[in-house]
Specification:
The complex is a heterodimer. Chain A is an all-alpha fold. Chain A has four helices and no strands. Chain A is elongated. Chain B is mainly alpha-helical. Chain B folds into two domains: 2-41, no CATH class; 51-166, no CATH class. In chain B, 52% of the residues lie in helices and 11% in strands. Chain B has six helices and three strands. Chain B has a three-stranded antiparallel sheet, covered by helices on one side. Classes of the chains: A mainly alpha, B mainly alpha. At the A-B interface, α1, α2, α3 and α4 of A face α1, α3, β1, α4 and β2 of B. Chain B: It is a multi-pass membrane protein. Chain B: GO terms for molecular function: monoatomic cation transmembrane transporter activity.
């Protein structure tokens, strides 16, 4: 069991690192939001799963799950708010519509 | 009525967060404030969650989150980040209100999509890779949300800017 926990927590940390790497590597605000929200959501989920067997009481276990759910709700809302703000501030920030963009692609 | 339900819910939230109800001198005011805000922001539309559908929806959500995280991780770790960003004007059949807002929030955690705005019946999505069939994934999520709220599935009129509905 402990090895499974190591594996889950390790994988969780890896996704956090990758999310941060995406934040550094991706070119603009929108793509960065993609990287950080999705990778961290999964990373925290794995971390929570890995820590669950180590909890000592039911409220403690519930608390772990709750933290994940709260972060999920917060990151889903925040990602929309940031994207919405960037779009409202500079309407040209969004790339072309999907069809034209895929046609232009070589 | 809504206020009391809210107090009950936020109290149990505090109970979980403090692992057995401690520090009520912080929790009490926080619970009351949160319930007050929740009541003020509460808008009455006829959309109610069908709680029987929640476990199925949660499973779908978990699978998609896993896919989204792995997808974005693989794209990040390429030597040249494998992205081809674009915009998708997605026509939704979900009625305005809770269901549509839930769609906008959740789509941000799904593979390659990010909601930026609502415009009438269109949801303006930023997509990470325009080569992926995003509209198809959105349609799937939409159907799940419609089931979650027990909404009747409505046929979607095709638009020139929506790949999936054209076919």
């Amino acid at each position: 069991m402990i090895y499974l926990q190591y594996l889950l927590v390790g994988a969780g940390c890896l996704f956090f690192i990758v999310g941060t790497l995406g934040l550094l590597r991706f070119p603009d605000t929108f793509t960065r939001i993609h990287a950080i929200t999705k990778a961290d959501n999964l990373g925290l989920g794995l971390l929570m799963l890995g820590l669950l067997p180590s909890t000592q009481s039911v409220p403690q276990a519930l608390k772990l799950v709750l933290i994940w759910l709260l972060v999920l709700a917060a990151s889903a809302t925040a990602s929309y708010l940031i994207a919405h703000y960037v779009k409202a501030k500079s309407p040209d920030a969004l790339p072309h519509a999907a069809e034209t963009a895929s046609e232009e692609q070589d | 009525m809504h206020f009391f339900v809210s107090v009950l819910l936020t109290s149990s939230l505090w109970w979980i967060l403090t692992e057995g109800a401690q520090a009520w001198w912080i929790g009490g005011p926080a619970v009351l404030l949160a319930s007050y805000v929740a009541t003020r922001l509460h808008h009455t539309d006829s959309q109610r969650i069908n709680w029987l559908q929640v476990p199925l929806f949660a499973l779908f959500f978990l699978a998609q989150s896993l896919k989204a995280g792995v997808d974005v991780a693989v794209r990040t770790l390429r030597i040249r980040p494998a992205i081809n960003p674009g915009t998708l004007y997605y026509r939704t059949s979900l009625p305005p209100g809770t269901a549509r807002y839930l769609f906008g929030s959740i789509v941000g955690l799904f593979p390659g999509t990010l909601c930026t705005d609502f415009d009438h019946d269109q949801v303006i999505l930023h997509v990470l890779d325009t080569n992926a069939d995003i509209a198809m994934d959105c349609r799937k999520l939409e159907r799940r949300i419609a089931r979650l709220f027990s909404l009747p599935p409505t046929p979607v009129p095709p638009t020139s800017r929506n790949k999936e509905t054209q076919s």
